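Justification of computing resources. Each target in the renewal requires a structure prediction run like the one illustrated here; the chain below, 319 residues long, is used simply to show the kind of job we budget for.
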Amino acid sequence: MRQWHYNRENNEVVELLISHQTTTGLMLLRKAESEMRIGAVSHSLLMLIVGGTASLIVGTGSAQAAPRTQTDLVEFEKMTWVEVRAALAAGKTTALIYTGGVEERGPQNANGGHNLIAHATAEAIARKLGNAIFLPVLPYTPNDAESIPGTIGITNELLAAVLERIAEQAALNGFRNVILLGDHAGGQPQVYEQVAKKLDGTLSGGARVFYCDQVYRAANDAFDQYLAQHGYPPGLHGYLFDTSEMMYLDKDNTWVRRDLVSSAVGDSVVDGKAQFGPHSPQNGILGDARRSTAELGKRAFDMKVDYAVRQIRSLLPSE
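Resulting structure tokens:
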């Protein structure tokens, strides 16, 4: 076999004679090298596919949430009808109807603070009772819009009608007891008491209806006493009490403007009355929220839950 070769030293092209054996060897060598390259690529590709599949399997497995047990299910709107039926059969026959509210509560707090607190409190009460499920929080309660934007309220009559309807529906779903609770003063205690008295024992299956008032006025008064005993200033609205509670519950930092808490002071409160004057800030705060902390908020929250659970247990008929 002939093959031409260029000689760089003398700038000449020379003819080389290569034997058949040598040619065959070179061809085999080149084939082996090619197969090795293909094999290496195939091996790498195989490892990539296997590795990617394994990662996909692991990732998929880790993304799947652990199955919840029936004892974990206390929020009606996040349950399926099958889960509700199973929970009722297991003894969770008490329905909590909690109202919140939307109103301005100072530059530092979001308008829906009552709803944030009501939802968290209802869940904590249901879990502590062990035999309850809380229905979706009602976001509006009796109130009137003011010159400061942020408040949206309904009337006492509308609240009464809504509470009656939801209580009736709860009984038709199979609940044996219905508890009315509120986080806002609007309609308390009159509307709640009247609805509970009107419906108690008259609903489907003879369901009982009760009003839990301790979670609001009694618990609030007890916490205000704690604040006074420890040298904190008094307040009525948007002050240290509710600001602290919102700070405790605000896990994603969307409900409280923490950078404004240090300046969150409004009209002073003396003997339970706001002192308005010519220099009133009119900022939605009645009292002083500047010393608010999540730790104080936890104390207030736990106190409300404890007061409610004690009262509800005393109200429910013994099995």
